[in-house]
């Protein structure tokens, strides 16, 4: 199974890149490996999940996922990514692709 965990330093850089220089065009959607959510949801303290947008060092748009505890705080000790943006991975037959 692939390792979807990314270091906090990468997540911070990706988020900063997104926030200071959003990519054009924006991704229409992201394909999220089920393993990412499964691994995150088995952490006992996780009661919710928060997704952050980012851009990696290659310019690829990413979603990053962190567990959220019962106090609504991000649990940034483990950050997951591994998403693939559309248009690279799209279902062009979906009514959401071109609404």
Features:
about 100 residues, alpha+beta, 4-stranded antiparallel beta sheet, two-stranded antiparallel sheet, 2 helices, 6 strands, about 20% helix, globular
Gist of the model:
It is built from 2 helices and 6 strands; from the N terminus they run βαβαββββ. The chain is an alpha+beta fold and 99 residues long.
List strands and helices in order, with pairings:
Layout: E1 5-6, H1 8-20, E2 29-31, H2 34-41, E3 48-55, E4 61-68, E5 74-80, E6 84-86
Please, could you describe this protein's structure?
By secondary structure, the chain is α+β, with helices and mostly antiparallel strands. The chain has one domain. It is built from 2 helices and 6 strands, in the order βαβαββββ. The protein has helices at residues 8-20, 34-41; strands spanning 5-6, 29-31, 48-55, 61-68, 74-80, 84-86. The strands form 2 sheets. Strands 1-5-4-3 form a 4-stranded antiparallel beta sheet, with helices on both faces. A two-stranded antiparallel ribbon has the order 2-6. The longest helix is centred in the N-terminal third of the chain and has 13 residues, at 8-20. The chain is globular and about 40 Å long. The termini are far apart. The model has no long low-confidence stretch (mean pLDDT 93).
């Amino acid at each position: 199974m692939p390792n979807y965990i990314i270091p906090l330093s990468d997540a911070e850089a990706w988020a900063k890149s997104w926030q200071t220089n959003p990519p054009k065009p924006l991704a229409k959607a992201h394909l999220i490996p089920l393993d990412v959510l499964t691994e995150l949801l088995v952490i006992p303290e996780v009661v919710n999940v928060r997704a952050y947008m980012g851009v990696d060092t290659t310019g690829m748009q990413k979603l990053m996922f962190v567990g959220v505890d019962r106090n609504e705080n991000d649990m940034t000790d483990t950050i997951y990514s591994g998403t693939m943006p559309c248009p690279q991975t799209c279902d062009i037959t979906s009514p959401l692709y071109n609404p």
